Amino acid sequence: MSTVSETPTDPEQACVLLVDDNPQNLKVLYETLRDKGYQLLIANDGEKALQLARRHHPEVILLDIMMPGMDGFEVCKHLRADTDTALSAIIFLSALNDIDAKVRGFNMGGADYIAKPFQAQEVMARVDTQIRVIQLERVMQARNRQLESEQASLLNAIFEGIYGLDPQGVITFANPAAAEIAGAEQDALVGRRIGDLHFTHDSGEEASHAGRVLCRDGAAVLRRGVTMTRADGTTFQAEYRAAPRFENDELTGSVLVFRDITEELAQERALEETRELVAEQREQLAHASRLSVMGEMAAGVAHEVNQPLTAIANYVSLVCRMMEKDTLDQDALSEVLEKITAQSHRASEVIRRIRQFVHQPATGKETVDVARLLAESREFAEVDSRNNAIEVSLSIPEHLPYAVADPVQVQQVVLNLIRNALEASRNCSSEEPVEVSAEALEDAVCVRVADRGCGLPEDAEERLFQPFYSNKDEGMGIGLSLCRSLITGQNGEIGFERREGGGTVFWFSLPLVDSSAPDPD
Amino acid sequence: MAETEQTVYIVEDDEAVRDSLSMLLRSEGLAVAGYERATRFLEDWHGGMQGCIVLDIRMPEMDGMELQEELIERGSHLPIIFVTGHGDVPLAVEAMRKGAVDFIEKPYREDQLLEKIRGALATDAEQHQGREEKRLIEERLEQLTPREREIMDRMVAGQANKVIAIELDISQRTVEIHRSRVMHKMGTHSLAQLVRMVMSVRDGDPE
C-alpha cells in the first residue's frame, strides 16, 4: 500500500500526507483523520513521501522522524529544497519525547510536533490548525500574484509612458507605452540615462528637465509642452509628471509618467482659435448692437447734444450784441462767457458718453465695481427715461462686492434691460419707476431690473432668449439673445421672473472676485 | 382792456437753453418770461396775455404738444413757435396742423428764431387788433335798442327805407331817424362799412 485516495479529488479539499514506516501507526493516523473532509495520502518511507508530495502538493505532511533509510529530517530537507513542496506544513511525529529532536525539527522548518502515542484529539486539532494556516497563506499568495499581474497589465495597458528612474537618472523600468513613444525596445531602454535619451536639448530650460524628473527635492513635478527626443533623434511635445520614490524615508529614485501631446496641443490651439473667433464675433455683434441701440437712441442723444449747443449759440449771439454796444460791460460779458464754457463742457460730456458706449472695445475681464457701473448705466439711460417719462430708480446695498467681468459688455446688458423695461412700462401706460437693484449672493453679484409693464406671454420661457424672437412690434429680437451671450461669456447667468402684481424682473449674475485665488501676477 | 406789452413766454425745461434765450431776447429789447414746466405756465395763463410762446416740444410731465392742446381748449390766442429736436419733424407737423404758427429745429440760428418770434408777435398784434375791433363793434351793438337792431339788420340785409317802413308798418321818416341813430352809435357814415362791421362780428363769432 503506497497511496490511498479515500475521497474524490476536490480542489477545495485539503490534502494531508501521512508518512510512517510503521503500518500500525499509519492505520491509527488514518483512522483518526478519515471522514474529516481531508484527502489522505499515505507513504511508508521517505522516497515515496517525496514523490507524493511533489505530485499532490499536500497542505500538511505528518512526518515520522525515525524511519529506516531516509529519516524524517532528511525528507524535510528535500521537501524544503523543492519549491513545489516547500510550502507544505510539516508536522513531525516521533516517539522520541526529547527536546533536541523537537528543536531540530522546528529548526528545519517543521511547523509543529506531535508525540507518540497519538491522542486523536491532538492530531485532529494540530492538523486542522496547520491546514487553515496554509490555506490562508495560499489565498494571500494567489491574491498577491493577481495584484502583481494586474499591476503589470495596467502598466502595459496605460498609453502613457512610464519609467522607473534611479537617483542617477538611469532607467530601471519601462512600460510598453514608453517604448512605443521612445521608438525603441523596452529592454533597450532599461539602463540608459533619461537625460541622454530624452532630454538631449541641452540648452537652458531643456537641460534642467533631466534633473528635474529625478525629484531630488522630494516634490512631484508636472510640466507641459516640453520638447522630448525619441531614440531616433526626432522630437515631440510632451507632458510629464514625475514623482519621487521613497524607501524608509530615503529617496530611491522617481517614477516618470509622460505622453506625446503634439496632437493634443494642435487641437488645443484649434480650440483656442475657435474660442477667440467666437469671442471676436460676439464682440462684433455686441458692437453692432451698440451701434444699433445708438441709432435707436439717436433722437434722444441729438436732443442731449442740442441743448448745450443751442444754449451756446444763444449766448454767443448775446455776446455779439454786447460787443456792438458803445460801452462794454466786462462783468456781464465774463458771466456769459463762463456760461458758454459750462455748456461746451456739457456737450463734450454727452459726446464722451456716446463714444464710450459705442467705440470702446471689450476690455476683457477685469474687476468691476458693479455699483458704479449701474450708476453710470442709469445716467446713460436718462435720455430714454426722460423721453418715456418713467423714472429709473437705483437701489444698491453698501459694500457690494466687486465682480469679474467685461465692464463695457455688462453696461450694454444693463442698458438693454433698462430700455426694455422702460418700453414695457410705456406700452402699458405704467408710471411706476423701473427699479434697478443689486445684491451680493454667496459667489456672485445679482443685478435685477424690474418693471411694472404688461408682463410676458405664457410661452416666453422657451423663446425669449432666442435670436430673432421679439415681443416688440419693432424689435429685431437680437437684444436679449445677445445679452445672454454676453453674460454667459462672463461666466454669469441671466433669466427673468414674472413679477407679483404685474410686470417682469430680468436678472443676471456675475461671478465675484475670488479673493482666495492666487494673484495672477 | 388796456393795451398791455407783448411778452415772449419761453416754456423750456432746460435751464441753459431757457436762460440763454431769455438773455438774448432781452438784449433785443423784448419782454421775456421763462417757465421750466408747462404746468407752471398754465397756472399763470390768462386770456389777456399778449405776445407769443416759444415752446419746447419735449419736456417731462406735460410736453409741448399737451400744453398746446390745453391752450386750445382754454381758447388761448397766443401764437406758438415749437422748438424741436432732431427727428421731431412729424410732431412739429402735427403741431402746425393744430394751429402752431411755426417751428424751429435745435440748434437754430438766432436770426431765424428772432425772425420767427417777430413774425409771431406781429401776428399776435394783428389778431389782437382784430379782436379789439370786434370787441368795439360788439360794444357798440350792445348800445342799440331792439328797434334800432331790427332796422340795422334789415339795412345790412339790403332793404331800402321804404320797404322797411312798409314791413314794420312805420313811417319812412321814422325809419330814417332810427337809421341815423344806428349809424351814429356804430360810429360810421357809410352803409358799406356798417355791413363789413356787422359781418366781421357774425363771421368770427356765430353767437
3D architecture notes:
The complex is a heterodimer of chains A (521) and B (207). Chain A has 521 residues and is α/β, with parallel strands linked by helices. Chain A folds into three domains: 15-151, Response regulator (Rossmann fold, 3-Layer(aba) Sandwich); 158-260, Beta-Lactamase (2-Layer Sandwich), CATH 3.30.450.20; 362-515, Heat Shock Protein 90 (2-Layer Sandwich), CATH 3.30.565.10. Chain A has helices at 23-33, 46-56, 72-81, 99-107, 120-157, 176-182, 186-189, 194-198, 204-212, 262-296, 298-324, 330-359, 370-388, 407-427, 460-463, 479-489; strands at residues 15-19, 39-43, 60-64, 89-94, 112-115, 161-165, 171-174, 221-229, 235-247, 250-260, 366-368, 392-395, 403-405, 434-440, 444-450, 493-498, 504-511. In chain A, the strands form four sheets. Chain A has a five-stranded parallel beta sheet, sandwiched between helices. Chain A has a five-stranded antiparallel beta sheet with strand order 7-6-10-9-8. Chain A starts with 14 loop residues before the first strand and ends in a 10-residue tail after the last strand. Chain B has a five-stranded parallel beta sheet, with helices on both faces. Chain B is α/β, with parallel strands linked by helices and 207 residues long. Chain B folds into two domains: 7-127, Rossmann fold, CATH 3.40.50; 144-204, Arc Repressor Mutant, subunit A. Chain B starts with 6 loop residues before the first strand and ends with a helix. The A-B interface holds A 298-299, 302-303, 306-315, 317-318, 321-322, 336, 339, 342-343, 346, 386-387, 389 and B 14, 16-17, 19-21, 23-24, 27-28, 58, 60-61, 85-88, 106-110. Chain A: It is an enzyme of class 2 (transferase). Chain A: It comes from Halovibrio salipaludis. Chain A: Keywords: Kinase, Phosphoprotein, Transferase. Chain A: It catalyses: ATP + protein L-histidine = ADP + protein N-phospho-L-histidine.
